[in-house]
Amino acid sequence: MSSQPAFFRLDGSTSSLLVSNHGQLPAITWFGARLEADLDSDILAHHDDSAHSFATLDARADMSLFPQPSTGFMGSACLIGHRPNAGRAISFTLGSAAQSGQVLSIVLEDKQNALELTQQMTLDADSDVATIATSLKNTGTDDFSIDWLASATLPLPNHLTQCISQHGRWGLENQSYQRAIGPGRIDISNQRGRTGHEHAPNIICAANDLSVDAGDALYVHLGWSGNYSLRVERMHDGVGYVQAGVLLNPGEEVLAPGETLACPEVHFTQGAGLNQCTQRFHHFARKNILPAWTRKPRPIHANSWEAMYFDLNDKDLNALVDAAAKIGAERFILDDGWFINRRDDTAGLGDWTVDKTVFPNGLTPLVEHVRSHKMQFGLWFEPEMINPDSNLYREHPEWVLHFTNTTTPLARGQLVLDVARKDASDYLFDCISVLVDEHEIDYIKWDMNRDLVLAGDGTNYKASKQPPAVYALMKRLNDAHPKLEIESCSSGGARCDFGVLKQTGRVWTSDNIDPLARATIQQGFTRFFPPEIMGAHVGHLHAHLTGRSTNLHTRAIVAMQGQFGFELDARVLNDEDITTLHHYTELYKTHRSWLNDSIYWQLPTNDALLVASGMVSSSQEQALFSAILLDSLMATRPGHQRLRGLDPKSRYRVTLVSNNIEQIEPFNKVLPDWCINSIVTTGELLSAIGLSLPVMPPQSAVLIHCCMEAN
Question: What is the pLDDT of residue 54?
């Protein structure tokens, strides 16, 4: 091994990643701001303190890329497993390490246990997001059972003392929770079989001085749509780490001789402040993860669900299509209830055939009516699910995830199909493809409305087989229908990660479209995911999930933060509402050409009840900023709102474009000038001083446009 380099260096546009190669196993020495100086192994050796730790063992307790007890590491071992009737300790040594461009490939060997582990680390030079891909091969002659295999273990610098994670429930996803990293391991374990409302596969470790603008932060994301564990620990000797991997049930992953298990990828970056790390992830996703069609201007959606639920018929749907077209919709989606025996949510899932009692002539008349308005047509499916009251279940009860002699509890009246079965997957592909071909369907809303419980094949657990099988089915459909677009919907936002986003390019962020709830849901969502993939719709006056009433301007402004659309009954809108919605649809159409590649900024506010953010064009020529007041402020005036992302040397015309001045004016003795007539000021002053916000009533919002003035 003496011929191998003592360290490897990957450089991004603003960051550097150093991996030392002088210990027993390679280890990350530095990941952060780009290092400008030339380095050599002697210099780096001066900054390695692993040999000086006060440990209970004489062994050198390396915080390597693959820490293990055999090196004296007392944290969460990266691999726990065994062979039949054998319990030999895992002990990897370095086989090889080689760098090619921005890719570092490391091979570890455990000859005693006949295992080979490969880790490939890349640093995307444009976005400064690094990725680790890990795989384990069984080179032995008998099976190897895996209990835990980490996708990645990252060192946790001493000054990162805070952990920010994202949690929630149905209808309130992506709520941030911050805690100190103290004694004891933080273990966020998701066992719901999908990414989950309760926990998101994201971890932020940060310094005490973290803000939107400053303070060191380490962002970590696991690209996986199933069970997982995220672990953060600072041990008694000060050594800290972040670890992520698939959470396995007993006996779920057994490697046969010669077989390889590929782990889901871990993506991470370390930067200064929330905004810098967020922007890096957005850029990385756009370049490396999302389908190409997400780079095109996004059409305005109109979805049938909250307008009609299961009460579908041609006449009323045609009227809804007419009304949606009138307010600017460009794509109409027929939601749940179109297939046989689907009059409520207790029957029909799995029988993907049009119900002729509802649509006597099939879907063709509706599709033609949609097309007559020059709108695209989309259709709702829930392919992974099956109702016991369905023809498919009666014909193939063995296709359901289950354990023999154990009753699987229903959720929403449904069970889960074993998509990893080839016959089940082929059935779904054929059913969906027939409809896509027949009606030239542009878009599928792919739903998933329950967690995986007792996910087995009758005898063995196989929850870990479900996500890659779903990815494969989606990819098969995408390959067969290149113009098709798929949305990831899972009771709202319960499946959003870089695993599923390689096949989908839109996420139904939450079933809750109450704009006040959405303000924090969407802010949490955009921590890791670009805003243009976020389904954001204008709902009814009375939100169906919360019962709260909010004015139309607030609902539209919040929807403008993502892919704009409607989740309402447009047939009952009055002329004033239609005029208002026209205003926002035209705004969205005017700006969407640059929104897809915009730079997202969370804005610092003086009060947590004021939620503010902005999207700035990559050229810095245009920007849209929103400020949403959730409730009454303690202060009588909201004060100045500082903006971000504008060119400090340029002058900008600032205009209130939310068209709701009449609602705000009564609460102000004197309105700020920019609210009445557009003003011109500099990007520097908008960042340093900000705009004086008007006094706003609770549950109101403003939308601000900044446009660079010609020299």
Answer: 37
